[in-house]
Amino acid sequence: MTINEMSIGQQASWTKTVTETDVYMFAGITGDLNPAHVNQVASEKTMFKGRIAHGMLGAGFISAVLGMYLPGPGTIYMGQELKFTAPVRIGDTITATGTVAELNLEKNIAKIETVCTNQDGKVVIKGMATVMPPKA
């Protein structure tokens, strides 16, 4: 959708359950083999007491919302502020939601509040995205 089709408060969401395969594939693609993600024995000695998914794996779900739903295909992702507020564990079902917060029609730039929650409704990631919606 174009910026003219967007409105303040408009929302879109995408949901995915994080699998062990997701974590290993993300580790392999990015090279982030931190034991907190890929080593059960080592991860049990951390403050999380077990393996957690990469923060950026969860943050990637925001990209699905922006690129596929709000504004959608053709969107240019210009920036993202993130806060990781709780761990994402293998088996968690994460819902990424984008809410239109600001629209600059003149510059064709939208600010979208981004929040990822787990299956219990706990916020695991929050932030603000800056995007350029596609032109008409």
Q: Describe it for me?
A:
- The protein is an alpha+beta fold and 136 residues long.
- The chain has one domain (3-132): Roll (Thiol Ester Dehydrase, Chain A), CATH 3.10.129.
- The protein is 24% helix and 35% strand.
- It has four helices and five strands; from the N terminus they run E-H-H-H-H-E-E-E-E.
- A five-stranded antiparallel β-sheet has the order 1-3-4-5-2, with helices on one face.
- The longest helix is centred in the middle third of the chain and has 14 residues, at 55-68.
- The chain starts with 10 loop residues before the first strand and ends with a strand.
Helices and strands in order, then pairings?
Blueprint: E1 11-17, H1 20-30, H2 35-38, H3 40-43, H4 55-68, E2 76-84, E3 93-104, E4 109-117, E5 123-132
Antiparallel strand pairs: 1-3, 2-5, 3-4, 4-5
